[in-house]
Design brief:
The complex is a heterodimer of chains A (384) and B (344).
Chain A lengths: L15 H19 L9 H4 L3 H10 L17 H13 L5 H17 L2 H12 L5 E4 L15 E5 L2 E9 L9 E7 L12 E7 L5 E7 L5 E14 L3 E2 L5 H6 L2 H5 L9 H12 L7 H25 L5 H24 L10 H16 L6 H11 L4
Parallel strand pairs in A: 1-4
Antiparallel strand pairs in A: 2-3, 3-7, 4-5, 5-8, 6-7
Chain B lengths: L9 H17 L11 H9 L13 H13 L6 H15 L8 E7 L3 E6 L6 E8 L2 E8 L3 E4 L9 E6 L7 E2 L3 H35 L1 E2 L2 E2 L4 H28 L6 H30 L11 H11 L5 H14 L4 H5 L9
Parallel strand pairs in B: 1-3
Antiparallel strand pairs in B: 2-6, 3-4, 4-7, 5-6, 8-9
Helix pairs in contact in B: 1-3, 3-5, 4-5, 5-6, 5-7, 5-8, 6-7, 7-8, 7-9
The chains are: A alpha+beta (384), B alpha+beta (344).
């Protein structure tokens, strides 16, 4: 029977090479900040799109790090990527423009893509020249992903796709979307079969992208309609009918990463500055939140190590995401409670805290709700 | 090499678990007040396991595995006090004949120490004391001790000890030893807390599978699943933080600052986890978990008691906040420090 040990990952100590890489990224960020070439922001992996910044990172070799050199990448390890992304997120750097391609799409293409996919897309991902969106959720398929209804039907030399994807972040800026679609009718006894992944050109005829504004007025979500959109056979990712397996086999990458606990780290940095300036008095809660961030870093690093060793630490990744996103929400609350009535709109802390408060509902929803994650953990404990 | 080998010989872990399992199978049911078990201690002593780091050429990795096994069996023993604290201090102070079982007491300005663990059981108390000239280590054999029995909330012996320090030979030590003593004690307690939490969660999952209400096992109620999932997550994070600190202390060349950071983080996270795990595992058990006859309390009570020892959760949190405030790093570079030379 599975048990508590399946939530555990072996601790990892960074090698000198990884520490040197961290040092390089820190130096790069310090230089960028001195030049004023980006403004640190909370939630910068979801909402800070800056193609120029992404290209500067790409020039350093920090986009598509795990892509083999023969496909224009850098042949680095998953740990190299972990270290670089952790440093960038901690600094609130604008990484959205390459984030989804770098995190999910490149690994998926490497694992399931054809030689043509790899030759065509991977070099452009590594150069931060193209962006991908991820088309998973639908109006009637949120947490229950197996109930997707977007249909792909056989047509001459390919497929015709009809349906609607929703919560598709940055589809209005992306070039392609990797979509989970139904290629065979739903079989209620085998709900996970009959699904496939298609790479869809978002500029193709029949694609409509409608913005969905977030409650703070920002635009990253979209609703994407496909009206009999033609997708050539060559744009099927992996095997027809294997979409569910392909999507769920890579959840560890999406769940354990630093974006699950560092989205609002800047709030703690702002508070530390205020404590040092004597504007506020530090208390134990500050130490508590710092301890949780540090522990989450260690556990997330352990998960990255397991992934680099081709393990499947899905349950441990779920722990990081569940507790990490709750910690983000707690940090937001702590910083909000320390705001003073007289702090005006020009107050640095107020600006960040208010953005965080308005973004917070999504922390514990996106990429698998915390309730879904608890169900995953409960299964590991033999309770389901 | 990027992955530090923190594994302990599985045969050794198997031995730890077997010894603890055999003991538990034949022990008498514990009451409210506990005493150290001399027979179990004798068994461990014969196997050379009571002084893993100070005599047996093992490291904190093996010592942590033994502490975990003992905590998961609720074995009442001064394992941490004897090896990781008492004999460690004796070796630093180069004091005493180093035979026999020890516990430890911190003495500041008086001859009386409260809440000395297992004092009535040991051959001597290693004193970490302060006098007019500063800090010293001294080995106080039982004949120099006057012991008034007392117990902590888990019923573990935490005696009041009056020590005849006048005739003791004192070896001077640096004040940094006091800080390290507290950190080592806090880390040992974190390891024990994780072991106790794991046992409480595993018992609760088993209980939830076996206990039927409304025609189905408790485990099938989503509310119960979520209680235990949350408990298990907190425990997993605590284990990660604690193992990270154990990995550091077991590796040569770490600085005292690095150790302080890791241990304070471990104690903070583990203490927080204990609070959640104790509440949730009791909630799952219902009334039976509140009784002396049902063994859940053998794990939840020590976890609560250990939580406040050496460095309390609140002290850990405040010390971390203070370190950040007086340091010159960002929050992030304090959490993930780089060796000097690699800094920006």
């Amino acid at each position: 029977m599975p048990g508590l040990d399946s939530l555990h990952v072996a601790p990892l100590r960074e090698s000198q090479q990884l520490q040197a890489l961290r040092g390089e990224v820190r130096a790069f960020i310090a230089e960028e900040l001195r030049n004023g070439s980006f403004r640190p922001a909370i939630d910068s992996w979801m909402t800070s799109w800056d193609s120029d910044f992404s290209r500067r990172l790409a020039k350093r070799g920090w986009v598509g790090m795990t892509i083999p050199t023969e496909y224009g990448g850098h042949g680095g390890s998953f740990l190299d990527r972990f270290v670089v992304t952790e440093e960038l997120l901690a600094a609130g750097a604008p990484v959205t423009a390459h984030w989804f391609s770098d995190r999910q799409v490149a690994p998926s293409l490497l694992r399931f893509g054809t030689e043509m996919h790899k030759r065509d897309f991977l070099p452009r991902i590594a150069n931060a020249d193209i962006a991908f969106a991820i088309g998973m959720s639908e109006p009637d398929a949120g947490s229950d992903l197996a109930s997707v209804q977007t249909k792909a039907v056989r047509a001459a030399d390919g497929w015709r796709v009809t349906g609607t994807k929703i919560w598709t972040s940055h589809a209005h800026r992306a070039d392609y979307a990797i979509c989970l679609v139904r290629t065979s009718p739903l079989d209620v006894t085998h709900r996970h079969s009959g699904l496939s992944q298609l790479i869809i050109d978002l500029h193709a005829e029949g694609v409509t992208v409608r913005p969905i504004l977030s409650l703070n007025g920002e635009h990253h979500f979209n609703e994407v309609h496909f009206d009999s959109v033609h997708v050539p056979d060559s744009m099927v990712l992996g095997q027809v009918g294997e979409g569910w397996h392909q999507v769920t086999s890579e959840l560890g990458y999406e769940r354990s990463g630093p974006e699950r606990f560092l989205s609002v780290l800047l709030l703690l940095e702002d508070l530390l500055a205020a404590f040092r300036a004597g504007e506020l008095s530090p208390d134990g809660q500050f130490g508590h939140l710092f301890a949780r961030i540090t522990a989450l870093h260690h556990m997330s690093l352990g998960v990255a190590g397991a992934l680099a060793n081709h393990g499947s630490p899905d349950a441990a990744a779920g722990v990081v995401k569940h507790l990490g996103t709750l910690t983000e929400a707690d940090i937001t609350e702590y910083a909000a409670n320390l705001l003073e009535p007289q702090a005006g709109d020009e107050d640095v802390r107020r600006v960040s805290v208010e953005r965080a408060l308005l973004s917070r509902p999504s922390f514990t929803l996106r990429g698998g709700t915390n309730e879904i994650l608890r169900g995953v953990i409960a299964r590991e404990l033999g309770l389901r | 090499m990027s992955v530090q080998d923190l594994s302990v010989d599985p045969e050794l872990v198997g031995l730890f678990n077997r010894v603890m399992g055999d003991w538990r199978a034949s022990r008498t049911e514990p009451g409210v007040k506990l005493e150290a078990d001399p027979a179990l201690w004798g068994t461990l002593d014969e196997l050379g396991l009571t002084r893993l780091t100070t005599e047996a050429d093992a490291t904190w990795l093996e010592a942590a595995a033994l502490l975990r096994a003992a905590a998961k069996a609720a074995a009442p023993l001064p394992l941490a006090e004897n090896d990781l604290l008492g004999h460690w201090l004796l070796a630093i102070g180069d004091t005493g004949d180093r035979e026999g079982t020890r516990t430890v007491a911190l003495l500041e300005g008086s001859n009386e120490a409260a809440r000395v663990p297992w004092a009535r059981f040991v051959d001597g108390v290693v004193v970490l004391g302060r006098d007019d000239e500063g800090w010293y280590v001294a080995d106080a054999p039982a004949r120099h001790l006057s012991i008034r029995p007392a117990w902590d909330l888990a019923g573990q012996p935490r005696d009041t000890v009056i020590i005849d320090t006048f005739s003791l030979q004192r070896t001077r030590v640096d004040e940094s030893v006091v800080a390290e003593y507290r950190l080592r004690g806090a880390l040992a307690r974190s390891i024990q807390m994780v072991g106790a939490m794991e046992q409480a969660i595993e018992m609760s999952a088993e209980f939830a599978r076996d206990r039927y209400q409304f025609g189905r096992p408790l485990a099938k109620f989503q509310a119960v699943q979520h209680l235990l999932a949350d408990a298990a997550c907190e425990c997993a994070l605590a284990r990660a933080a604690t193992e990270s600190a154990v990995g550091l202390i077991a590796s040569p060349g770490h600085t005292s600052d690095e150790l302080a950071l890791r241990v304070l983080v471990a104690k903070s996270v583990t203490g927080h986890a204990v609070s959640a795990v104790v509440r949730k595992t009791h909630q799952v058990h219902g009334a039976i978990g509140t009784t002396l006859e049902y063994p859940l309390h053998e794990f939840t009570k020590p976890a609560l008691a250990w939580s406040s020892e050496f460095i309390s959760v609140s002290q850990a949190n405040h010390q971390l906040a203070q370190r950040l405030l007086t340091g010159n790093t960002s929050v992030w570079t304090a959490a993930v420090p780089l060796p000097a030379g690699d800094r920006e």
